Here is the input.
Amino acid sequence: MTTFDWPELYFVRHGQTDWNAEGRYQGSKDIPLNDIGRSQADKNGALLRDLLKRDGRRVDEFDWYVSPLGRARETMDRIRSCFTGTLPEVTVDPRLTEISFGIHEGHLHTELASGAMAIAGERDAAFWYFRPPAGESYDDLALRIADFGSGLKRRAVVVSHGGVLRVLRRLIEDFPPESAVNWFPPQDSVVHFADGRATVYPAGASWDD
Here is the structure.
């Protein structure tokens, strides 16, 4: 899907917010983590630490990037608190901001499912190009994420959003568009991208051997 080779990525979606729990379109709105989301971020930090140890990776082999939205930045802070020693600086990159749902942000998924915007699990391939009023399509978001990826110089740790993770699977794995827009990105996992494929590691399991 892109004309360059992606480096190895460890990706974490931010933890749960109240809007996530309520089933509201969140997008570019800056909604904070709730207590469940903070716990998820802490567990994902411990998991990332264990995965890097398992894979023989040092933290200084990676550049660290985060979306500017508060829920992602708090998730990154909590992840980093699980590590000891000096960590590389974090780059806040606006290209990692979640897809904008425009005028639909704040509405319940079920409110819009019958007409204005199809809900995940019921979308067709054309939804990749669907742009809500004052918002973005997944294809728009893919342009941002491809621009971000083209500038990566080495391995990276990325903390961002569910829409971004959907797009990464499309760009890196050549995930079909209808699969990408209907996949439910986890908030309790670390996703490892390497050699053109993604592996999802759920938090709470042991991955250190």
Remarks:
- The chain is about 35% helix and 15% strand.
